[in-house]
């Protein structure tokens, strides 16, 4: 049964019980930060930002860092379309940041700011951030040794951030890739950046790959990890015990698949996945479309089917199967609590899906070899279009970045899967992206994707989570 906010208000306690049992995320009734009457769970109502940028609960604050178009170095600016992000602990003077040093032995030392001079201290963070562009927009520009295809405008940026979320330095760490949407952090401390494309007009090399980026800046090479397949990649979550990668695909005609890559290597390290492995696709024989599942807590036994041609030399990977489990708009992925979390942003019968919803959050448990529906957004509610996801170190829930209609929120859940609005884009209708915590959990990073793209560092009383 589809339950809307209006139906709950009209139906009173019975409607609210329906939402509680269904685990729906649309059980929060306020429609804007200015009209908040209080959050039932989470950190309380959102407080309107006097600057009109980012509304947060009382006690939380943000810093704006790395805005699209800001200068980085001569001829290089911050690229646009900020997207997926992961964080890594800084190592001080061993990190390779152009125009930055970790010690006074450098001739540049007298010209550095106090923040840059202190950049080797403990508690600092490196962010690796995607830029979801193909040939237009504010391009990622890097030296030839970091550029895959000069025609393409996407890539990644590495940011060094201090303990309080202030930007120390940044540089473009990969260029010449296309539509770098999301990705995933590896257990050996690198970032996998995913191209959400199967190619575009004018390309000089094939696209639709995953690339590996060294957050510390010394080992990155613009070499595709072909074993992970060539398709419209979204995100990847890596099991730290088996090194198996779980990948989402955002595609249509037909809809995309959920994959796993089992590497030949048994020990992790930079370019582990270049050693090859097996790419497989998820199949649940009784469920041709994940939108058919509407009851949170539903568990389904997984089967894994070999992908005949991962490089899609003649046929797109998802078209190589006559019968397979599909989903519209497979988006974010994250590893946490021994499971791979993955998101379906929405589903529409009008677009050819089997059912309607405004977002699903799934988990795959490799020990039980089963997927489970954790959360579902009902159409017509306050929240819709979940995209990037991260597992929160507070309360055992998740934080979702919206890419939906109308107002855009960061949506959190508690340990009991109770939803709350954590932040609202007060500036414009651009989606949120790149939601992730610093390694010590003190700072939440998130980006406004465009108009202009900007990354935020959010701090506050994280342990005060209610519900």
Distance between the termini: 25 Å
Mind telling me the C-alpha Rg?
Answer: 21 Å
pLDDT < 50 runs, ≥5 residues: 1-37, 99-112, 115-120
| Class computed from helices, strands and strand pairing | mainly beta
Question: Approximately what portion of the residues adopt beta-strand conformation?
Answer: 25-35%
Q: For the largest sheet, list the strands in their spatial order.
A: 1-2-26-25-24-23
Approximate shape = globular
What's the total number of strands? 29
Largest sheet geometry: 6 strands, antiparallel
Helix content: under 10%
Q: What's the tally of helices?
A: 3
The averaged pLDDT comes out at 87
Describe the protein.
It is a single chain. The protein is mostly beta strands. The protein has a domain at 66-224. Helix content is 4%, strand content 35%. The protein contains three helices and 29 strands. Strands 1-2-26-25-24-23 form a six-stranded antiparallel beta sheet, with no helix packed on it. A five-stranded antiparallel beta sheet has the order 13-14-15-16-18, with no helix packed on it. A five-stranded antiparallel beta sheet has the order 17-22-21-20-19, with no helix packed on it. A hairpin with a 5-residue loop joins strand 28 and strand 29. The two termini are 25 Å apart.
